[in-house]
Amino acid sequence: MPPWTLAFLRWVLACLILAPFALGQIRARARAIRTEWHRIVLLGFLGMWISGGVVYLSLQFTTATNATLIYTVSPALVVLFAAILARRPLLLMQALGVMFGVAGVAIIVLEGDLTAVGSLDFNRGDLGMIAAAIAWAIYSLVLKRSALDAIPTLALFFAIAIAGMITLTSLMAYEAVTVGRFPITLNSWISILGLAIFPSVLSFSFYQYGIKTVGPSSTAIFMCLLPPYGVMLAVVFLGERLHLYHWVGFAMVLGGVILATSAELRPRL
Prior knowledge:
Number of strands: 0
Radius of gyration: 19 Å
Structural class: mainly alpha
Order of helices and strands: HHHHHHHHHHHH
Number of helices: 12
Strand content: under 5%
């Protein structure tokens, strides 16, 4: 399935799922949404166009290993950008936590051989993943803007999803005319529905709630748990085996998350 078509259909279904729960809040906060429309459109562009369509496009040219390593840099960017915007030095525990988390991800993805980084083949797909990592960091920080606090989490997410779907429309239409391959089988639509439910409606909603509750820096560091989750799911559903480097990576990722989210020790760099 073409990348922009997949991204568009994913968010069409996500919007249809969200609509019954969000429309009442949208009507109640219509004025605030109209006031903040420019930020909402920006969030849709960053979260659905770049961190969606561009990611799918980039994966046609790069490997899953490269993509995972590059995209996992986004928590570090969130922490760094947040410190710059707040004009304060990085918290020591946050900095150490991010470094441990990213190193743990690298150990898992590179199967314990960190020297393999030098042999990775970087290409134009990796540039797209770099853009997506930066976009996701900016998305996380814009979500925390106080101007958006007047809009409930679900209503704001629905508005962002609508904006993202609209930004994807033109390239989806271009693919429909030039490439075709619009999904017609039941299995294709079940796959898209899975994308709409789990990594769209559920993941984005909880991520947005986390940012409103504990802030972007603490929320973003949990993205380092994605590779450990993926490995454990592969063990359970695909019969893959755990190796020593998996356990070392798990320990470093978990330690990094604990360090970065610790509220007890906060000496500054």
